[in-house]
Amino acid sequence: MTDLLPGFQLFALAAALYAALGALAVAATLPWLRSTLQPWEPVARLRVLLLLACVPAGSALVLLLAASLPSMLALAAPWLDHCTVHGGGHAHLCFVHLPEVGIRLGLLAALAYLFARGLVRLTRASVGFVRAERVVAALERSGEPSEVPGLTLLESTQPLCVAAGLFRPRILMSRGLFGLLTPAERGVVIAHERAHIRRRDAFTRAVVRALTALHLPAVSAWLRKELDVAAEQACDEEAAVASGDRVCVAATILKVERATRAATTGRLGPVAMAFGATAVERRVESLLRSPEPPRSLRLPLLLLAGIGMAVFRFADELHHLSESILSLIAH
């Protein structure tokens, strides 16, 4: 087992470098991304933002797989083994010739810190999700099913309406808010929250918050904010289609925002999408304009596919380059 440790350290360092490369690429294009994505319709914008959130993790996975490809081939075809041409101090991303020594102590400590920090954050988030799910279940048990399918009314005067739950989302609305809304406004709110449930937005947000931890802090904050806004706007558009009145949806958002301004979702926050709590001004402005035409994501997907093909096409060069860089910084 101890023989495998130096090799594991090198592969871990390579993965960290690849993830950092992806994060820096997104950070470098952030000004352009902000101006380009702003006018896009919500669904297409949300999908592109999801792809951007995955860039560091995806870069680490794809580049590590490509850089390991020559070593994998050497396992099946020993005559393709190139490690024998290198000196003993060369870092080997290889499954055949494991390195004799690990990486520098400082780098090893940094990797251990990043791993421990990520583990602590993941543990805290998991505990928060479990507690929030318990609160949702308790509220659902204390509430009363309404005549509207999928809606539970809570015996509370505090205005509240959320689509809550990661794996079994449901709509919770307080009687305080229910009584404030007209039948048409209730229809808007329920259509909006049903869109959240159909799209599994609470679960998607939880996954994205984990993925964006690999980005630079400013990029991570922007991605989280824009993803939340795009998700809300996408649900607003579905509510507008269901009601047939975009102005009514905009007016309902403003009414609910005023009613719930002092309210808080408390421990529901990690698993809840609250109506009227996010980017109200941008959502209303969007609804008062004509809807944007759907955009095709064919070009971004073709670009990603082309980059992936190029990476694997030059896997041998990537393998050698990665080993050279690791030799400089790790040993």
Describe this structure in words.
There is one protein chain. By secondary structure, the chain is mainly alpha-helical. The chain has two domains: 1-103 and 296-331, no CATH class; 134-294, no CATH class. Helix content is 66%, strand content 5%. A five-stranded mixed beta sheet has the order 1-2-4-3-5, sandwiched between helices. A hairpin with a 5-residue loop joins strand 3 and strand 4. The longest helix is centred in the middle third of the chain and has 38 residues, at 105-142. The chain is elongated, with a radius of gyration of 25 Å. The two termini are 21 Å apart.
Calculate the terminal CA-CA distance, rounded to whole Å.
21 Å
Strand content: 5-15%
- Total number of strands: 5
Principal-axes geometry comes out as: elongated
The largest sheet is:
5 strands, mixed
What value does the average pLDDT take? 84
Give the C-alpha Rg: 25 Å
Estimate nothing, just give the exact number of structural domains. 2
- Show unreliable segments: none
Q: Assembly state here?
A: single chain
Order the strands across the largest sheet as they lie in space: 1-2-4-3-5
The secondary-structure element order is HHHHHEEEEHHHHHEHHH
Helix content: 55-70%
Q: Treating each run of at least 4 consecutive H or I residues as one helix, how many helices?
A: 13
The chain-level structural class is mainly alpha
